[in-house]
Amino acid sequence: MAEVTAAAGQLSEAARAELLDLCEDQFAQLEKLQNEIILCESNFCENPQEQSVNRRIATEAELKLWQTVEPTLLAANSEILLQAGKEEMLKLCSELEMVVSCSEAKRDKLRETIELEQKWLAEKRQVLEAAAVHTERLQAEKENSSAHNVLPDTKAKIQKMKAYQDRLMEALGDILEKYAPFPQNSSINKNTEIDEDLISLREILEVLMNKILNTPHDPYVTIDNTFWPPYIELLLRHGIAVRHHENNFKIRLENFF
Amino acid sequence: MSQLRPFSKLPALNTATVLLVENEEQFQQSLAEALVEETSVTVNVRLSKSLPLPTDSDDSRPRIDLVVFIINLTSELSFQSAEASLKYLDPGYFLGKVCFMVTNGRNASVPMERLDAVRKLAATLHCPLLFAEDKTPDGVASAAERLWTILKVAAGLVPITTALYLSNLSRCTLPPDIDQPSFN
């Protein structure tokens, strides 16, 4: 009814009058129904179960109504029908346009998603290929290697590692000898007294390394008078050693990975 | 006890009336402003802190097509107030003319139990449960839009649809295992 009155603006006098009559009829019927509703005592109650029952009854009633209802013509006048139909069509058009733009946006979004997913798939495929190659290689290795040649292999590897370590150690020793000589009276200010028990940087490092390797749970070394303070400073400043959190006189080798 | 009845008054022409019930009275003002921007029909928004409504304004009040309970999840009082207000509604309203709107649902300090309680309440009353963002203008606008969709139907402005029909489709339902501790 509301739409019909809204459309009435562009109609001829006769059609307009007819439409208003229709509206009045409808409104009279509405008033009649309203009075009936008010006269009806509502027997609803607040129990949720009963409310579900009410709901079912109301829904069933509505269903029955929809099943029995016959489609009726809005009005007999063709002019009114044309006008109403035109408006409905325009409304429908604008709604459908909205649907189109919405679904287009959705389609674009989906396209983007599918691109991303395909990229992802390609990446995963590559990973799978790499993994397959790896397993193949491992499989082949497993077949080739037996208990007989694993042991010599490992031994050779250990030997190689040891040689490498020795070389590293030697290099470290050389460097230390060259650039961090044993603290001597001559090398520094004559006024400062040098403790006779001092040990070289190489020995300090040795102590630290042995400590961290032998007792990994307690890698800290207590600083005593044999440690020349500038060397400790050097180690700490360059991040080779770190101090204990609570005890200033303890240091340990930094964790190298 | 004066109950609010859905059909006690004649409807006005081209008008939809919504009653926003919120204990804190924070969100209802901005939501109302967003709702009345609708131009195709007259939208009346009535605000209230809780039900029952004062009886002296009974005559001037239009027929209320939809009652919306706004529940702020961060406040227990908000939920209790909405729950207490429910009994002042005629059961006829629960056939599609009530809906719950929850705010602050994304707040981390909200206990899960409260949201579950609201969902249970909405499910036992077969009402739709909407979630709204009240801090941003966009959130308010989209909340108003969703509410308007329900209001249009509840006010009878959409042909071939009724409030009961819509609410049968949009009512809140509970997963059957919500009471189990593993439910997440």
Automatic annotation (TrEMBL), chain A:
Entry's Gene Ontology BP terms: kinetochore assembly; mitotic sister chromatid segregation
Annotated compartments: Chromosome, Centromere; Nucleus
Keyword Membrane recorded: no
Pfam families cross-referenced by the UniProt entry: CENP-K
InterPro entries in alphabetical order: Centromere_CenpK
Keywords carried by this UniProt record: Centromere, Chromosome, Coiled coil, Nucleus
Principal location class: nucleus
A single Gene Ontology CC term: chromosome, centromeric region
Family label: Belongs to the CENP-K/MCM22 family.
Name of protein: Centromere protein K
Organism this protein belongs to: Parambassis ranga (Indian glassy fish)
UniProtKB/TrEMBL annotation, chain B:
Annotated signal sequence range: none
Compartment annotation: Chromosome, Centromere; Nucleus
Domain of life: Eukaryota
Entry GO CC: chromosome, centromeric region; nucleus
Pfam families assigned to the protein according to its UniProt record, in alphabetical order: CENP-M (PF11111)
InterPro entries for this protein: Centromere_Cenp-M, P-loop_NTPase
Keywords noted in UniProt: Centromere, Chromosome, Nucleus
Official protein name in the record: Centromere protein M
Natural source organism: Parambassis ranga
Classification lineage: Eukaryota, Metazoa, Chordata, Craniata, Vertebrata
Protein's gene: pane1
